[in-house]
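Running this now, will post back.
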Amino acid sequence: MLVEFPAGTHLGRSRVSSGGMRGTARDDRDSWLVAQADLFDADDRYDEGYRDGLRNLLVSCATDIAMEVARTVTVTAVEVATPFLKDGARRFKEKL
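Update: finished.
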């Protein structure tokens, strides 16, 4: 469900159902009734936008996982290579 209401307003709270909201827009300053909120079925009107958002979320998660794997592989490679590099540098100094 998509709800649109004017800027500077908020939805009224339901007195009947816990956590529910009313379809009325009330002024942010004094909570006077300003307008009725417009309700839209999100599946019909914004289906493509939802899919784009889901795709972007999945791409973001996949990117985060790939970056974490690359970071882990790099750190492990540096930790494994460090003793060999130090030994090679020591031997090179001895030859000079």
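The helical segments are 42-45, 47-95. More later if anyone needs it.
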